[in-house]
UniProtKB/TrEMBL annotation:
Location of the HTH deoR-type domain: 387-427
Top-level taxon: Bacteria
Coiled coil: none
Entry GO MF terms: DNA-binding transcription factor activity; helicase activity
InterPro entries noted in UniProt: DeoR_HTH, RecG_C_sf, Schlafen_AlbA_2_dom, Schlafen_AlbA_2_dom_sf, WH-like_DNA-bd_sf, WH_DNA-bd_sf
Keywords from the UniProt entry: ATP-binding, Helicase, Hydrolase, Nucleotide-binding, Transcription, Transcription regulation
Name of the protein in question: ATP-dependent DNA helicase
Domain Schlafen AlbA-2: 3-108
Length: 441
């Protein structure tokens, strides 16, 4: 079995591996095997008798943690299994907190450490009180908009319209037991989000051919309940076009990206963002739209599982609850499925969903013919260049392919045939010298 978030192999024991025990205890727990190399091959450990005493004693003395230490044997070689339980309290090694993430060990500092400490006591960053924030600091219009939408969706009783706003916030878990507004309350309905974090805004940028070519930008600075509508309004007004087509006599002007999918992705980024981190970035290019929010997926989910039926694990449960009650989202974990379905229905490629740079991203494609996407399709570089040539000039013939790729006619024919069989291009024109290749319609 390969190393993963719950398994670590070490060929021999060093006391510094107490840090790994600390990291597992602060995360999901796990197992450390001593006497097995990185490939999972049993190398054996000679001083196993001493280690069977030393390891559990040092775990208790340095970490205050009881671990199970088991001795195993394979083909005459001994190795040790250390089973580390999940700790209900934060564990430090010599004053430093460690955390197991993926197959790595990380030292926690600053906000990451604060989040660990909060999680271990059953709290989240969104639950923390905001000093000096009062009900007058909230936007009453936003609150009333929420109430109206939630009543319309039948997710709060109609009597809530006459409820004292402070009691309403309490019922939504947006007020502490001491009556203080939480981070979530100010983020959702606040007039000044800087009281909570200066990075609550969403940045939109229009780029040229690369991420270094910023043409113009906007910063959406508002409370996050109003943010989805303002982001969509800004995109429609300045960043996206509406290609005109006709269905019979009816004039059709849909956005270049399916609006339901785009809105769902924006909601997803706002609701699941790690608000103790940086901004949400929405980048619009000629051929794609990329939205990224800080905060990786919960440990219970993977990218592949997101595309199947899965449970919902909101990072900010109280923020998610407000958007749910307002009818903006479901509570069934179907956000990514709805995004993919909306793209399919609009005849667009399936969006690229990734974890990157400590966050989560969705890339919408106008078509599949982007260099980034094509490089993932196991094509030859010359084939990718030919597809990009078609995208620029509309078509390519065998002679042009030969010249572009610097290959023989036989190789050009074989390459073009492969692209045709894969459904990426199709023949156009008369057979022979009159044959050219265009994108598959």
């Amino acid at each position: 079995m390969a190393e993963n978030q719950c398994i670590e192999y070490k060929q021999s024991w060093r006391d510094e591996y107490l840090k790994w025990i600390c990291g597992f205890a602060n995360a999901q727990g796990g197992k450390i095997f001593i006497g097995i190399d990185d490939n999972g091959v049993v190398a054996g450990v000679d001083d196993y008798k001493r280690l069977m005493d030393d390891i559990p004693n040092k775990a208790v003395n340095h970490l205050g943690l009881v671990v199970d230490v088991n001795l195993h044997q394979s083909e005459g070689k001994h190795y040790i299994e250390i089973i580390v339980p999940v700790s209900s309290v934060p564990i430090a090694y010599h004053g430093v907190y460690h955390y197991r993430s993926g197959s790595t060990k990380q030292e926690l500092k600053g906000v990451a450490l604060q989040n660990l400490l909060l999680n271990k006591i059953g709290k989240k960053w969104e639950d923390m009180p905001v000093e000096g924030a009062f009900h007058k600091d909230l936007n009453e219009t936003s609150i009333q908009t929420f109430i109206g939408k939630a009543i319309e969706k039948d997710r709060i009783p109609s009597s809530a319209a006459n409820l004292d706003p402070e009691l309403l916030l309490k019922n939504l878990n947006l007020v502490t037991e001491q009556g203080q507004l939480t981070n979530a309350a100010v983020l959702l309905f606040g007039k000044n989000l800087a009281k909570v974090t200066v990075t609550a805004s969403l940045k939109i940028g229009r780029f040229g051919r690369s991420s270094n070519d910023l043409l113009f930008q906007d910063i959406i600075e508002t409370n996050i309940f109003d943010m989805p509508d303002k982001v969509m309004d800004t995109l429609k007004a300045k960043y996206l076009i509406r290609p005109i087509s006709y269905k019979g006599l009816e004039r059709m002007e849909p956005l270049e990206y399916p609006e339901p999918a785009l809105r769902e992705a924006i909601l997803n980024a706002i609701i699941h963002k790690d608000y103790s981190s940086t901004y949400i970035f929405l980048r619009v290019y000629d051929d794609r739209l990329h939205i990224w929010n800080p905060g990786n997926l919960p440990e219970e989910l993977s990218i592949e599982e997101l595309k199947k039926n899965h449970s919902s694990y909101p990072r900010n449960r109280n923020i998610a609850n407000v958007f749910f009650k307002a009818g903006y989202i479901e509570s069934w974990g179907r956000g990514t499925n709805k995004i993919i379905e909306a793209c399919n229905e609009a005849g667009r490629p399936e969006p690229i969903i990734e974890e990157e740079q400590g966050g989560f991203s969705i890339t919408f494609l106008k078509d599949i013919y982007t260099e980034e996407f094509l490089r993932k399709q196991n094509l030859q570089v010359r084939q990718i260049n030919a597809l990009l040539y078609i995208k620029k000039y509309g078509s390519i013939n065998n002679a042009q392919y030969q010249e572009l790729a610097k290959v023989s006619k036989r190789t050009a024919t074989r390459d073009l045939q492969e692209l045709t069989e894969r459904g990426l291009i199709q023949k156009s024109g008369t057979t022979g010298k009159g044959t050219s290749y265009i994108f598959h319609l």
